[in-house]
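Table S7 (text form). Paired inputs.
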Amino acid sequence: MRLAARTDAASSPYVVPPSQKFDGNDGSWSTFKISVGTPGQDFRVLPSTKSGVTTVIVPDGCSASRDPVDCPQLRGADVFNSAQNPGFQVSATSSWSSIGQYDIDLEDALDYTAPGLFGFDQVALGPAADSTSLSLASQIVAGVAELDYFLGLLPLGQAASSFSSLGESIDSLLVQLRNSTKIPSLSYAYTAGAKYRLKSVFGNLVLGGYDSTRFKPAPNGFSFAFSSDPSKLLTVGVDSILAENSLVGTLSLTSGAHFSVIDSTVPELWLPTAVCSQFERAFGLTYDPSTDLYLVNDTIHQQLVSKDPTLTIKLVNSLQDATTNYTNILLPYAAFDLQVSYPHFPEATRYFPIRRAANDTQYVLGRTLLQEAYLIVDYERENFTIAEAVFPDPLPAANIVTITSKRAASSSQSGSSGLGTGTIVGIAIGLAILSFFAMFAFFFLRKRHIKKQAFELANNQASDAGSTSQLNCATSQLNCATAMKLHGPSELSGTPLTELDSRHVNHFHSDQKLPVSINDDPVELHAESRGPITPRWQEVHMPLQPPRSPYDSDQASNGSRPVSQLPSDDGYGSNEQVIRSGVSPLTGHFSPL
């Protein structure tokens, strides 16, 4: 299961300890020590820039009737339970969980394939006896017997693994180390080491950082971009290969540029056939068709040692930008002075590590190049650096530099924003002014809204009071002939309207229907028959009407006086009498007139 990606500022780069030995059947390669299982079984392995799976040999990889007696030790198996381990013993680990048998095809184009026994187990980057070794449980481990994978592999690739027996893909070891915050970022740095340098220089492998003492940085900080092909991320352009002080002097070995993939899984440089032919001429090589290897006889070897030729490989990011952004890697003849042994030859035989590529899918730069080059890969930023390795005498103490996670760097930048003090102050002032105007607008609109509610409330109260007075005057003997002239919202007694608390608003709804006079004949009202409403404060003069029922016959009425024309269902020009009530709309109590 994939873990949620997290970063931890406290995590530091991890330096994988070298085994202090040089191993291999195709050269002398500086190996690194890991342990697999519970309890841990120690193995010496080589870093693979392409693999995402830890690979170790199994007991079936060494046969007593076919292989040398020390085969398990030659293939990287160390002592386990006080005896030479024949290979990874799944029965001796309590944390093993089998997945099944699948093919290992890291370099299928180069025919580097083999069946492997896959399962989950604990992997520690260091010997089992070292409790400080970085370790992770439930990592994919492949046990391999085929001699094509003579030594086990420590995975530096980021590609996930998928199996038909599992429902989901499994992240690589490096990705899980980053996700579990055991390393600061998804990155690494690696140089293969050089046995021929000084008194033997071991390889250097740093996860989540690099050692600044092991390489010479490019003057312009040049780096390579990842390829768009996930299987060929570390692709470089080989612009030229120049041989100096060779058997024929200085010679350009290439007539044009081509792209190659850096892959430490394989030892050789896989080059176009025409380039290999130029190598034959410059170094006096002999091609062996039975092994597809270039051999060096003793006579030629002595001549090359005497001349000490050098090879300069110019690497570029783009074939169109080879004049400014490039890296030169210089390799002495000693970097190519290797020996190949069992199973290719019964005895160690000198060979020159170049191979003929059938087509451009086989163009690969292997471990031979990384003896003199320092590779830094940053998966998060999708770039890598390949610089010239250095070998000062004596070698200085390591200076490990952290490669921070891109996510952590983005969070830091967003937190600090990188703005100047003046800009920050200006933004703060602008926000303060904006906040002030927002608050002012809020309170201003709120005050207007309150006043509007109060005004509507007053109108509703006046309307209700007038309608109530009309009913009261029709049913009582009160003198309703006098109505006060109103000049605006006010109490019926003429006093100015007092603003009510908002809790009374619900008692006087603006859409409340006016009472109907008891003198009117009952009729059905229809909303669509209503005419225009007389303005509330329009003053009219009209004669008092005689009583329209026996109950109003004693009403004293003569003359006319101004009255306030309230809204009427009859529209403009209504002669309906409006009478002031003796009930206060503010208190609901009857008050004498």
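Next pair, protein 2 of 2.
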Amino acid sequence: MPLFGKDKKDEPVQPTPSPARNSTSTSGSKHGLFSRRRGSSPDVSPPSSPARSSTRSSGLHNVLHRNKEDPSITSARQRVFQAEAAEREADRALASARAAVRDAREHVRNLEAEAAEEARLAKIKQGQAADISKRAQPLGRHDKT
């Protein structure tokens, strides 16, 4: 489809013969820059155009896919994949280590709290034992003989 013209299927069919269109008098200066292209013979430009585009696309295809076949590119890509996997594994190991440290600290806090509670209870027990001991000192006054 031309960029600045009508599509040929949208144009009404004209009874005028096509050779009159292609004559040098009609394709002269009275037609614009874009009209001249429409008047050119269709058998010259369309076949060369697809041939060039297919060559370009196959050349582009070869350029794009050449890197996939190059062993140095493949090796570099593989190394990048391995480095990414190693980073993911290191991230998992770091998260695991952080969780282990968090658990250990929590365990130590629990032990300290437990020890503090046991110390508090031992202090209470010691105080109660001292009170009982004081009360028991006057006992046995009848044993003196």
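The mean pLDDT is 75.
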